[in-house]
Amino acid sequence: MYRFQNTARNLAAFAALLIIAAAAPFAQAQGTLASWGWNSQNQVSFTPTGTFTAVAAGFEHSIAIRTNGTLASWGSNGFGVVSGTPTGIFTTVTAGIDHSVAIRPDGTLFSWGRNDYDQVSNTPTGTFTAVAARWHHIVAIRSNGTLVCWGDNSFSQVSNTPTGTFNAISGGGAHNVAIRTDGTLVSWGRNTWDQVTNTPIGVFTAVAAGAHHSVAIRMDGTLVSWGNNASNQVSNTPAGTFSSVVAGSSHNVAIRTNGTLVSWGNNLSSQVSNTPAGTYTAVAAGHGHSIAIRSANNAAPVLTSISPTAITSKRGAMTLTVVGSEFINDSVVNINGSPRTTTFVNTTTLTAAILSTDVNAVGTRSITVVTPAPGGGTSSAQTLTINPTTISGTVNLLDFIPGPLGRNVTGLLYDGVTNIPITLSALNGSGLYSFTSDIAPGTYTMFIKDTHWLRNSASVVVGTPSTATVGAMSLSNGDVNGDNFVGFDDFDLLSASFNLSLGDSGYDALADLNGDDFVGFDDFDILSANFNNSGVDLP
Q1: Where is 28: in which H helix or E strand?
Q2: How many alpha carbons fall within 13 Å on the CB side of residue 391?
Q3: What are the 10-residue block averages of pLDDT along the chain, 539 residues in total?
Q4: Closest CA to 51 of 269, 295, 359
């Protein structure tokens, strides 16, 4: 690593290094945007699509430069800072509280938005190479390297602007930090948390000022922070080497030399914990949100799980949660290769609106995530299983000695319009059954009947998840001819088999009501007890 030495040659080389470093984020950055953290005014959820070369974050709004040089603003529109975004081509942009400033290709400045401290009306003329805003004041570097400040001067952050020439600047809440052409730092303005007096010595390549703290990159790429530490934005400064750093009101974001991001400090809006994976070329931090430009190629999405993993059919539209990594605003969840409306939650979570038609039939569905070019791709698949509804209960076949074991009871489910045939297969010794049916949630009437028993019914309520337990159902015996009524015709059939056993000529198994393989007086007793009874009619 090059170490700065105080020689005329190295001063010149270092000045060139700073100029290159200052220009690099705008010259090299070209990619899609990722926003995270505080979303009070949709400064995260309204992040635009497309590719951009520079970004800036204000208190509750953001602004970016498209690859064609035009501006896009979103978030809070206080004082018309979004709706008043100018047309034209710009090379650099910065944002404060409800105001923004941009540099045109000819080096002149354009300011708009809030003007209660003349931060718009006092915009200086001339040509500039850099500009920075935070709260209600702005600082800029003229083409000759000198500084000019305007706006709020409550802590002399404007009137105490230092003389000399500078290569980099950053504006804080009410203080500023700048890098001289020799690489040393100078701070001025508010000093309540020693953000001015504790300015470190040494040589630095980048600097950022938050509300009441500052952070800088040394020549060796390491970070140093100072000032207010209420959210550990100073004490939690990470180790390692970095190419860029920015400061929000009380959180920081830095780009490591490998292009990945690290955030620390205030996490009340998940502006630290939701820092996205992937590689980035530029980053900006607002009050409680951050925005970064991805590397030219989008990372391929990684899908690790979905929730739920299984549902019952015909349950209607639903929301599917997709978990993985490398998701971006433009990532889309697909079901069997067809895109569905997708909401970007963060870089590890998406939600998708699954249509009712997607889950109407039993089977499996392939879930993938697709991220568009440049780069991007399709993730590996997870399986969403669509199961039928499970209905269970107990049937009591009255007056039958062998019991229900192994019997198949037939019937149907009725939803008020359609009859759905069912079979309660192979009952166990207690009459327990369980069967599946591809039906929608709702209320049904279940009708069941077995050979010489009368039909009965019960209400079945199918919810989501689609399972239902039906109360015990008893079927009355004696319907020898199967017409769902116990009458004289049944007496005639039973009489025709009277005193016959299984294997005898003329023996009728349907007349053997108690199942003892003999048609006798016990069967007449059962029929007599239920004489003139009817079963439940079908709809």
Answers
A1: helix 8-28
A2: 28
A3: 32 32 38 95 95 96 96 98 97 97 98 98 98 96 98 98 98 97 98 98 98 98 98 98 97 94 98 93 97 86 96 90 91 97 92 95 96 87 93 93 88 92 83 87 92 95 79 94 96 95 95 96 96 95
A4: 295
Give the span between the Cα atoms of 10 and 98, in whole angstroms: 41
CATH 1.10.238.10 fits 8-294, yes or no: no
On the question of a common fold for 302-387 and 389-529, the answer reads: yes
**Residue owning tokens 């809070």:** 76
Whole-angstrom distance, CA of residue 483 vs CA of residue 422: 19
Given a contact cutoff of 8 angstroms between Cβ atoms, the answer to whether 75 and 46 are in contact is yes
**Please, which residues bridge with residue 346 across strands?**
349
Q: What is the pTM of this model?
A: 0.57
Kindly report the CATH number that applies to the domain delimited by 302-387: 2.60.40.10
Query: What are the boundaries of each domain within the chain?
Result: 8-294, 302-387, 389-529
Counts of helices then strands in the chain (DSSP H, E): 3, 39
Cα 208 from chain centre: 30
Domain 389-529 sits in CATH at: 2.60.40.4130
- What is the distance, to the nearest Å, from the Cα of residue 201 to the centroid of all Cα atoms in its chain? 44
Name the 3-class secondary structure at 26.
helix
Cβ atoms 535, 454 nearer than 8 A: yes
Asked if 161 contacts 137 with a C-beta cutoff of 8 angstroms, the reply is no
Q: In what order do the strands lie in the sheet with 251-256?
A: 242-247, 251-256, 261-265
Give the per-residue pLDDT at 8.
36
Q: Which residue has the tokens 């007096």?
A: 197
